[in-house]
Amino acid sequence: MQDALIRLTDHWAGHGCLITQPMNTEVGAGTLNPATALRVLGPEPWRVAYVEPSVRPDDARYGDNPNRLQTHTQFQVVLKPEPGDAQELYLGSLEALGIDLRAHDVRFVEDDWASPALGAWGLGWEVWLDGLEITQFTYFQQSGGLTLDPVAVEITYGMERIIMALQGVSHFKDIAYAPGISYGEAFGQAEYEMSRYYLDDADIGTVRELFEAYAAEARRMLDARLPVPAHSYVLKCSQAFNVLDARGAIGTTERARAFARMRRLAHDVAGLWVERRAELGHPLGDAAARPAAPAEERPFAPAPPTLVAPASFALEIGVEELPPHEVSRTADAVAERLVQGLEEAGLYGDTCEVHTYATPRRVIVTASEVEPREPDTEQVVKGPRLSAAYDAEGAPTKALQGFARGQGIDVADVRPVTVGGGEYAGYVRRITGRPAAEVLMELLPGIVEGLRADKNMRWNAPGLSFARPVRWLLALLDEHEIPFEVAGMTAGRITRVHRTATTTSVSVPDAGALIPALRAHGIEPAVERRRSQIVETAGPLAVGVGGAIDFPGERALVEEIVNLVEEPVAILGAFDPSYLELPEEILTTVMKKHQRYLPVRGAGGAGGLLPYFVTVANGECDHEAVRAGNEAVLRARYEDAAFFFHQDLRSTPEEIREGLGKLTFTERLGSMADRAARIRAIAAELADRIDLTAAESAVLARAGELAKFDLASAMVIELSGLAGTMAREYARRAGEDEAVATALYEMELPRSAGDALPAGTPGALLALADRLDLLAGLFAVGSAPSGSSDPFGLRRAALAVTAILRSGVRLAPLTVEAGLAIAARHQPVEVTAEAAGEAVRFVARRLERSLLDDGHAVAVVRAVLPHAGSPAYAEQAAADLAKLLDDDRFRRLTAALQRVLRIVPAGTPAGYDPALFREPAEHRLHEAFTKVGDVLPERAPLPEFTTAAFPLAHPIDLYFDDVMVMAEDPALRANRLGFLAAVRDLVAGVLDWPQIA
Fold first, then answer.
1. Contact of 981 with 908, CB cutoff 8 Å
2. How distant, in Å, are the alpha carbons of 391, 403, 462 from that of 418?
3. What pLDDT digit, counting tens, does each position of 33-45 carry?
4. Which secondary structure element, helix H or strand E, spans residue 429, and what is its range?
5. What is the C-alpha separation between 767 and 772, in angstroms, rounded?
């Protein structure tokens, strides 16, 4: 291992990095060393590399876990400003370690990083070596709450993981650290003893005193304007907090306050560091990003080609690995912008076809039969009014002569023109259409500059902001380059292929050759082809071991894999069948969520799990090496899972539940224990509104006592997606009734749109209570979603509420308004009427979106929204209304009611005196109104309402034929409007009638 550290040091020193030393106090990551945390701030350039022992008390395992250590070794690199080729430099460092990049599967997999305690975040990747995460690669965007300019690249190597993979050992103790000395021999005693200290023996009172002393000293150093010692004491503060946390001594309120305190200190240190460096005159220089200077005209830049026939066009935007969900979306957005621009310029003819291609590293749009030039147009140039253009003798006036001179034309060329209905002297100028190449030169920079994603980052390219850096541009019109410029990049005919290729850059002769050229170099740019390749190669591998892959069930995973690779290569792997003793959900969650493996099942893909998986590598490689690497990764993952699982089984559900008090929900809404108690109380009140059997009541009560207990289990803390699944598993193993175990599982359903819903009433009530508590509490404290930000998943929660309430008639008595009111009563903060109303409307909007997604017309959905509080009724009303719109009787009734609604002013109260009726039509309508009111069921289904209310239709029509509603007599007019208002109120709650006018 020490040889590997020396090689990395030599590699990065050779690329201009200062080699500095580890921090002289405990840090949780190399990021916290001032060589990173402080030096990434401000405008000064900085390149550094160093080894950092990273101390994480919560990862202490007494040296027993093969992959978890309380002190692990990081190798940290910072490149500021980011150099544009950091990925290539990094891959070179792997080769320096002796890793054959052509034999192994090395990939950059999306993994954004954030440290709220430091006010720091960045976008980047985990780097995988045959499925093993070996490095965190991040473009730092902010630190200490300050935006970074220039942007720095942070590369953090996990040394134990890398060396275990290279040496083929399965436990960190077996690493050969130096000749004749193992890692365990060198550090095993320290690992055990420090684990004992962190988990068992640290004196809580003493460490609390240290935390306070360190925080006070950090503040004193800030007051003394000494950011370096202040930062040192912030780090000591953080370590003291981590020790207390590992000892289980941090409560909810204390955690929130400690985080806020450390965040303020870190922010103040960052600000003071920036000030001090400025006071010192930035000794290392100023590398802040600045707008690119206007590009000088290239001395031999060819003029845009002028074509005489339709041409093919290709645009390729080369990027560093995009997040999978951004790949196809970005290609579609680029194609839309291109088509719009071509259409506006008249270059998109009837035979023009646009195609999109996308991989993690490139977005491509091609167009065939692009018109060679814009059509010629005529422009009317308006001069003086015709009456002022000529004098009485018909000679041009000075005004006309001045106009002609300004346009560079002869007065004889002026003619009368009509503009806006007025007569003017004018000139019709013929504008020759520009060549297609010139139009594209103007259009394409805006397309690249307009790239946007869900999360955007900056890099060393002024004016650009996107999911990941743009690194090259290709633009060809037939064989001609379109050399547009963006942020210092000039488009040409060069594309890039696999980084492991002998020649990584390839010249493309013409637009039509781009896609064939990529395929010739092993890159499949078409999403649908990569998808087919995965299915066609992975499926037979599973069949070969007597199994199958459930491709329909794994559709989401397949789509993610499709956009993680440019050249899919399926490889079959296996694991020890003894791991099948673990619950299947644990095994598949690890495979799919962490490793993106396709599980192999028996019986045509629908049977039980087999001890095999399929991984999809990116490009040709040494299959045996990649298989072995992925198998080792999965083995380590399963060892971790087994450790957590068996650790949890040593405790009862009640004992695990005690840990909820240590988990923060939010500062103002308390701990997860507080939230679990609220869920139990809310569910009990909801149950009072429906008829539960005695057995169901008992199940609800017991499941309520254990609600959310598994969130404090080691397994769910490690794999949060198993919440509910592990509650069911642990409850079963503890001897709980199966109905209780099922309710604990079902309270987490649905997890997403289209997911299964609770099948039992106790589970449904707990699931409802869970989401209602989220909505009421978070809206009360002002944490409603904004834009794309929804950190608490409130959109999912609202959708779940509507889905559950739509799922069964037994829940029909429950409404959204009533449920939120119950939840509001149990919150530790006041839920104002405004907050409650906002939450109700938020849920209604989710229902509206859901009904639209179900295929209902917009008018139909909006018409039934008055019933959004009862989603099941609203859903049925939408279905009924869609049919009734073609029903003659309903159309007649609707037309009649619309006449009533149109004439009655808003706010008119219902109230009338039959004694003031003067016309027979008034008495006929009143008689029909009375009879309908007597028989109309409350909240009847729409077909039943139509039958009961239809007798109003004809009397209403006669009423408007024979009665002057707006009579001159004020008393008579008020009586008639009051009567019609009563008719309005009779049907007002049925539909939002104007929506179907």
1. yes
2. 20, 17, 47
3. 999 999 999 999 9
4. strand 422-431
5. 9
